[in-house]
User: Fold this.
Amino acid sequence: MKAIVKFQILFFIILIIFGCSSHKFTLAPIKTFDPDNKNIPAPKDIKENQIWDIADMTVFYQIEKVLDLNWSARKIGKGLNLVKGRSADNVNALDEVPNSSWYTNRHYQNRMNLEELQNGPNVTAGPDQSGLWLIWLAKTEGGTPGLFIRDAKGDAYILKFDAPQFQEMGSSAEVISTKFFHAAGYHVPQNTIEYFDPDILQVQEGVMIPVQGSERQMTTRDVEDLLRPIPRREDGKIRCLASKLVDGKVVGVWNYIGTRSDDPNDLVHHEHRRELRGLRTFASWLSDEDRRAANTLAVYTEDKETGNKYIKHFIIDMGSTMGSNNIIPHAPKYGSEYLVDPRTIALQFITFGLYVKPWEFEVEPLEFTGRKEDPNFPYFHSIGYYESEIFDPGDWYPTYPNPAFEYATYRDAFWGAKIVMSFTDEDIRAIVKTANYSNPKAEEYLIKTLIERRDKVGRYWFDRMNPLDKFKFKQSNDVLTLTFNDLAVDGHLASAEDTKYIYTLSYNGRHKQEFVHAPEIPISANGAGFLDQILATNDIKNEEDKIFLIKIQTVRKGKKPSRAVDVYFYYPGQNQEARVVGILREE
Assistant:
């Protein structure tokens, strides 16, 4: 009995803490920019420790979060379906992410053409090959060998080289994913595929390399040794990835949890930023399993318009995406669980080994090293391990725990899914072309897999949320209509003919419910209608009291009605201009 009483008390506390929330939208302008680019003093340079980062997230963070009573209570509440996850802190009234030093709305909100998608973040055509490339630093950290060079124009780049047995794999993954990340809205460096004559490389005086615990001057022989295993084309040129250094001063990495103490602009805890939570969905599509702090950059940069100096946040190192793990292919395990995962370990113990992991019967890609590529077998050395059969968008995990990903709610995931679905087949084809694959069949396999995984992402998250978006009003022939996009229909995941929308207009206890078969809901005709009657029969003087609610559910043939999306809008009456002031999504 005592246990029951304790459970009831816990239930009551959870309801009080998490269940009592209300929303009040106003006529204030929608926030589209987060002013986190205010001038700040130069921050300190935080050195990265990759080993500590991995150990911290894999071990200590996992222990700390269990001991965090807030985290544990909410987990229990979510498990019992009593509460929802903690909402992201930096969304505006329309449940969108304002532009900031972290993110810029691009392809989903404002469609980019194919040329813009292919160009991505590029500000140059790549390193200038009209003169020598001076090596000013050797890249000795990370999984990919490389060189820091300065071209004839003085621009600085990092050159990275594919593993000899996996030519085109890492460089293609980096270039393609860079274009996707940029179009999605993240800040990324310029990455291009280059073919160059090794004779244009020249080692600058003072470039040191580690040798048996000490350092010595890098020589031409060292460069020749580095490049010797890399295949030459018929013209003698070799292929590399050229990553242009970003403008500004690098001041370390940024983490997926907490804030940076020496950045007064950094006010939102990173694990509660929507663009970082929603990144989980985007990363799952691209099999970006290495998305952790080590693969980020915090850059102290100057705003060209205001002259303000602030920290801009970049995502880097996309060479471990899709089938590539830089110099080797991804292992089948990647994406299904953490490298050390207490969940699957416990399952194996509890079931005495009877639990079968989805990837267990997949063939390890390294077993195919050296074999001739078989067009009838979906494996290409230039692609690596990237598949769409066992991929599960709802059960995807990076290699190491990522706090922002672990806090992601359905709303965050839906936000990421609609960005993934914004890439059409044509968009994907155009971006993949920029990798310059020498094998057309490998290129086709990658395009096909990207499309199949994209659709899996869309189906999974659009089935769990009401995928209506881009609400706006239009007026035609004295009829005021609320229009919207059904993202599942737009993405060819649902049939428009088998879909209808049930909507309920509400105001102070008065309701009107109807349905339509198209994503257009008439609000008023000739200034007469349900809302006009309310305005005519109530002496409403405060403009903010003219905010109405329309609740919309989507009904597909053979399925239960979807969760609701609540659209709050201002309507002054008499067919005058209306506008959306707030959106709430049921999850």
Remarks:
- Confidence is low (pLDDT under 50) at residues 14-22.
